[in-house]
Write a structure and sequence with these properties.
InterPro entries: Aminotrans_V_dom, Aminotrans_V_PyrdxlP_BS, Pser_aminoTfrase, PyrdxlP-dep_Trfase, PyrdxlP-dep_Trfase_major, PyrdxlP-dep_Trfase_small. Keywords: Amino-acid biosynthesis, Aminotransferase, Pyridoxal phosphate, Serine biosynthesis, Transferase. This protein has 363 residues and is an alpha/beta fold. Helices cover 34% and strands 15% of the residues. Strands 2-10-9-8-5-3-4 form a seven-stranded mixed sheet. Strands 11-12-14 form a three-stranded antiparallel sheet. α4 links the parallel β3 and β4. α1 packs across α6, α3 packs across α4 and α7 packs parallel to α9. The longest helix is centred in the C-terminal third of the chain and has 21 residues. It binds pyridoxal-5'-phosphate (PLP). Pyridoxal-5'-phosphate binds next to α3. The site of pyridoxal-5'-phosphate has 11 residues, from α3.
Length: 363
């Protein structure tokens, strides 16, 4: 089976095999990680090794703190304003909205402060709004954006420049798929279930000077100061998901690190974008060329408006060939192929062959 699911998504086979082998008996203890106390030495070791691997992979300096939290990236849509918006004298924050997920983040943040979308609203989520049109507020608590919009297939090709205002990125669907300079960011949030593990754990990396501004209404489980002070153990952490993330991070390290992942992501996505470009309009990607995602390739079949019957047929044919998860997001339609780190080049080549034969049979 070839798994192109958008998340939860494919995990490296060797990781799954290791998890299977250790499932009932972790490290000779006779119990599963799932059955272990989160305060045991063994679990503490899992946490610190996972954290250290992440620090190595992303070159995270000492003045950044790492949390493993519950509540998903969606929980962080609330946690960010709850923890940070008070840094601004007018409780305001700037948002860049390039797709479904950043729009949801705005909706949540509006409950807690004055949210300014810094550019004219996009009619369609198919591009990054022109930077020269951004109206950034120097007194904003932070500038927020989504580095890769999973549903729309829009990915930032650059890191936004925000001067002294801390930049915050949702990297749920592209973290560890390319190198970046963490010192350009105030914080990064990422649900694990696409590129770095299974559902249940959300990674938060934050610069330490941004901690300590939470609103009194902030639920304690989302309070960064409390969770950092307790090494993410204020309450029971998603222990099994953290363990699995540790295995995935080891796998990334053993497979060329972040640069290794980056090369593969470009290769895989280019295979599909080239097939689209060479299809005489049978396939069309509606995202502008500079903003096309390396992780989630979205396209329509049978013209830019999409022929829904043809798209349904394509999804069915793919299913017959044991390729799963390519139906577009319900808010977007069409086809979406998710190419997270664990998806292989050979798997993408098999999809490209299907795209070719499907087109030839109908064009
Ligand atoms: N942000 C992005 C970019 C996502 O792709 C998703 C989920 O698909 C979310 C946020 C929401 O994550 P969760 O379901 O873990 O809350």
């Amino acid at each position: 089976v070839v798994n192109f699911n958008p998340g939860p998504a494919k995990l490296p086979e060797s990781v799954m095999r290791q998890a299977q082998a250790e499932f009932l008996n972790y490290d000779g203890l006779g119990i599963s990680v799932m059955e272990m106390s989160h305060r045991s030495t063994e679990f503490m070791n899992i946490m610190s090794e996972t954290k250290n691997t992440l620090i190595r992979l992303l070159n995270i300096p000492d003045n950044y703190k790492i949390m493993f939290l519950q509540g998903g990236a969606t929980g962080q849509f609330s946690a960010l304003p709850l923890n940070l918006i008070r840094r601004s004298p007018n409780s305001s924050a700037d948002y860049i909205v390039t797709g479904t997920w950043s729009a949801k983040a705005v909706k949540e943040a509006e409950k807690y402060g004055n949210i300014n979308v810094v550019h004219p609203k996009l009619k369609k989520y198919s591009r990054i709004p022109d930077e020269t049109e951004w109206n950034l507020d120097p007194e904003a608590a932070y500038v927020y954006y989504c580095d890769n919009e999973t549903a729309n297939g829009v990915e930032f090709p650059f890191v936004p420049e925000t001067g002294n205002v801390p930049l915050i990125a949702d990297m749920s669907s592209n973290i560890l798929s390319r190198p970046f300079d963490i010192t350009k960011f105030g914080a990064i949030i990422a649900g694990a279930q696409k590129n770095i593990g299974c559902a249940g754990v959300t990674l938060v990396i934050i610069r330490e000077d941004l901690i300590g501004y939470s609103m009194k209404e902030c639920p304690v489980v989302l309070d960064y100061k409390t969770q950092i002070g307790m090494n993410s153990l204020y309450n029971t952490p998603p222990s099994y998901s953290i363990y699995l993330m540790g295995l995935v991070l080891d796998w990334i390290q053993q497979n060329g690190g972040v640069m290794g992942m980056a090369k593969k992501c470009v290769q895989k996505s280019q295979l599909i974008y080239t097939t689209i470009a060479e299809s005489d309009g049978f396939y069309s990607c509606l995202v502008e060329s500079g903003a096309r995602s390396r992780m989630n390739v979205t396209f329509r079949i049978g013209g830019p408006g999409g022929d829904e019957a043809l798209e349904k047929e394509f999804v069915e044919e793919a299913k017959k060939a044991n390729m799963l998860g390519i139906k577009g997001h319900r808010s977007v339609g069409g086809i979406r192929v998710s190419l997270y780190n664990a998806v292989t080049v050979e798997e993408v080549q098999s999809l490209v062959r299907l795209m070719e034969s499907f087109r030839q049979a109908r064009q």
